[in-house]
Amino acid sequence: MDFKKTNAPTNTITRDMNSLSAEVGNIYETVKIIGKRSNQINVEMKNELEKKLQEFASYTDNLEEVFENREQIEISRFYEKLPKSTLIAVQEFIEGKVFYRNPAKIKK
């Protein structure tokens, strides 16, 4: 997933949960859907960050050889400036990009 191209705000915004839950019909179900998507995004971001930082990994146990790596710092700063996973999930939900289903509501 490309997190650079998200329309999500970087600051928290107060939202009307009644209008957000209009499509699903239940506020708690809406929160659960957004929460699960947020966890998925968080795992994706974490894996991507770990993969990028793995290139700079040092496998020595000597404390004297610890040094500052500019590229590693820049990558870390980039990920710190991204919107939080919850904000991205809410924005995706508003834009209709989240697929969800409730197996309990599916008729057999």
Brief characterization of the structure:
The chain is mainly α and 108 residues long. 51% of the residues lie in helices and 0% in strands. It is built from four helices and no strands.
**Strand runs, count:** 0
Q: Beta-strand level of the residues, as a percent range?
A: under 5%
How would you sum up the global shape? elongated
Structural class by SSE content: mainly alpha
Number of helices: 4
What is the topology?
Elements: H1 17-20, H2 27-54, H3 70-81, H4 85-95
Helix pairs in contact: 2-3, 2-4
Written account of the structure:
The chain has helices at residues 17-20, 27-54, 70-81, 85-95. It has 108 residues and is mainly alpha-helical. It has a domain at 30-98. α2 (27-54) runs antiparallel to α3 (70-81). The longest helix has 28 residues, at 27-54.
Features:
single chain, 108 residues, mainly alpha, elongated
